[in-house]
Design a protein that fits this description.
The chain has 178 residues and is an alpha+beta fold. It contains three helices and ten strands, in the order ααβββββαβββββ. The N terminus is likely disordered.
Length: 178
């Protein structure tokens, strides 16, 4: 074997080893920004801070958790899953403390109204999620089958998401727990 051919072979092997030894990593700073913006856009709740693992290899199907906090101190766990081997991800809210699920709350109020008054109504609490700030209140709208709208006042009892609700001009609603 001549020296020129041996040098070429070593260089080729060296390049191959360098490529297989290198791993691509997710841009975690970019991911944090995507999570903040996406969470706010989808839930209506702003995030103050997002923390994720320091580094993650790009690998289709890989899942990990990021922790997020709101300005008011509510906490959320976001499960991030890599959709492919190109760094594309999808995420979902997997747990929360201090965040009210307004769809679930509306269902609880709807069932309570039917139980207490016998009236079936559609309830809208104005979005998907809301930060649970103890002592603060907000209104939901209940519309009965005849189209009449009624106000339901909700008071947040604690950061765990326990609430009391009351139909304006009516009786107290059963406490709802998130």
């Amino acid at each position: 074997m001549n020296l020129k051919r041996a040098t070429t072979l070593v260089l080729c092997l060296g390049a191959t080893l360098a490529l297989t030894g290198c791993t691509r990593r997710l841009d975690m700073e970019k991911l944090k920004t995507v999570l903040k913006d996406g969470f706010t856009a989808q839930t209506g709740v702003a995030l103050k801070e997002v923390s994720c693992p320091e580094s993650r290899e790009i690998k289709a199907g890989d899942s990990f958790d990021c922790k997020a906090t709101t300005p008011g101190g509510a906490m959320a766990t976001l499960k991030v899953t890599q959709s492919d081997d190109q760094g594309n991800v999808k995420w979902e809210l997997s747990a929360s403390e201090g965040v009210l699920d307004l769809t679930k709350l509306a269902g609880t109020i709807q069932a309570g109204l039917k139980e207490q008054t016998g009236v079936e109504a559609q309830v809208d609490c104005g979005g998907k999620f809301r930060e649970a700030e103890a002592g603060k209140g907000f209104d939901c709208k209940a519309t009965d089958a005849g189209g009449a709208a009624h106000t339901v006042t909700v008071t947040v009892k604690d950061k765990a998401g326990n609430v009391d609700w009351k139909l304006a001009g009516g009786g107290e609603g059963a406490p709802a727990e998130e």
